[in-house]
UniProtKB/TrEMBL annotation:
Recorded GO MF terms: methyltransferase activity
Keyword Transmembrane helix applies: yes
Protein's name according to its UniProt entry: Methyltransferase
Cellular localisation: Golgi apparatus membrane; Membrane
Amino acid sequence: MDLFKRPPLLKIAAFSLISFTFFYFGKHWSNGAYPQLVFFSTPRQSIGTSPNFIKDFNVTQLISQNQPQTVAAKTVSPGGSPPTTSRTFGIIDSDGKMRDEFEVGEFDPEVVQNLGNETEVETQRNEESRVRVKRFELCEDSRRDYIPCLDNVEAIKRLNSTERGEKYERHCPEKDKGLYCLVPPPKGYRQPIPWPKSRDEVWYTNVPHARLVEDKRGQNWMSKAKDKFRFPGGGTQFIHGADKYLDQIAEMVPDVAFGNHTRVVLDVGCGVASFGAYLLSRNVLTMSIAPKDIHEYQIQFALERGVPAMVAAFATRRLLYPSQAFELIHCSRCRINWTRDDGILLLEVNRMLRAGGYFAWAAQPVYKHEQILGEHWEEMLNLTSRLCWELVKKEGYIAIWKKPISNSCYLSRDALTTPPLCDQDDDPDNVWYADLKSCISRLPEDGYGANVIAWPTRLHSPPDRLQSIQIDAHIAREELFKAESKYWHETIDGYVRAWHWRELKLRNILDMKAGFGGFAAALIDLGLDCWVMNVVPVSGPNTLPVIYDRGLVGVRHDWCEPFDTYPRTYDFVHAAGLFSIERKRCNMSTIMLEMDRILRPGGKVYILDSLEVMDELQEIANAMGWQVTLRDTSEGPHASYRILTCDKHLLLS
């Protein structure tokens, strides 16, 4: 009280001292571990063009709309300034940019390997307890190239038969025998050579397996030169290079029209994927597949080169691609007996081949005249004629057939002709653990799937099969399709500008919940030189036919199980609205550990999801050693979802 009775000058001095004290503590507490005081907060910036963008459309298939909640973790606006107390991990500098001189170090076994999975029991408010892993251990060295569902030796030993290739199919570990550790990279692992240079050479230490060099020495597959593998572009049937081989196919059947009529191709028994690698320059996207057999690392080489590929086998189950997916299916000495079991494997090719599409076969029965090979050729001619395929051209090593555009030929066959048409109720897009069928998949009577337009127009044209997708939509499917495309284009444009995506040298990208493929389409529109594996989870509607009709590639999968690819496959993993759905079915740490397995060191993960899952996701990511940041979306700080950005780094020795 005496203060207010003092002279005015003393009052002013006292007030100034108090103001300065509040300013000092507010300034310093806002930059430390304490929450930032409101009057020193940086204005939030957004990556979208409008904070009300999502309100214009119903994009319920993309993002789980939950009621706004609060989150204890510190968040950063996408376009905001980085925190002043930043730490540098490997390739990310204090400005959030990737350094060109990045070089991956090795794990320090004293720091990581001997720790083990460190856990603690946490009691929730409702008095329920859960085990929280504070730190995941490093897997043993033998797991460096481990694919859980394809390397399950115990399950393979229990198979009743392996004569039809059953051992190359999925046999996932039981839940208590899953992978609960971090898969280490090979010793001396380095940042992959960027595309397009990686098409022709990769680091030896990243895929340290030289057996294929010896096995395929005379076929021009690959060679080893000092610390690199080199790929001259040859193959078993095109030792003089893939480009000349592709020119031959284009001349044999001009209607193939690579990069126009033919956009999506399946290469069966792909080797190191030179066929698909050279088609990329012709605006053709090729899914290169091969089993994990005696040439078990061929798909790993393909992925290290930056070529779309995954491990898959023609055996007893349908492949994980939709009907009418590919304009061309190619087999060059792929070591598959297409006529066995009355052609059941060629019937699977027929299911996946688009109406009016082509099957190219380069194999010894085509050009050699030995008795056994001649008999095999006659069997092939007989089978393809019963499938109503037309032999368009046979020249040199190659024979090319064309699939009919409708069911009319099938219906006009003799009633006793085999194989028969499949029943009307057969779903040719049901592929998850679905057995092969010894019948011809019917083509839609309305022509859906056959009427795709030329590339690149098809990327943004709603395809006919959009109408057949079973989804709960409050607006028309075409409007939902366009809304998704617009949303991801504007969102990724913001990512490119705010987070410098063009500098990240991203090549192999995984979208874990792809919807209609809008994320992948936006990357193409914005000129990022990458490819996307679009995964459509089995827990949601099957939009995979639409993705292929747009000229993209993808696969059906259940994220409660491991993915059929090698460790260190992807540079970038994207998951939008995935965890809020899948957590009802499986453990989120199982999915996150699988993401870590297939993510390259130096790779990035972006998770867009509801606030209610973010705390647990951050805990898991931290336990895996990822550097994480929680960010606002374009909706601002009061939205019910956030973006969790993660960087995977190695501990430097």
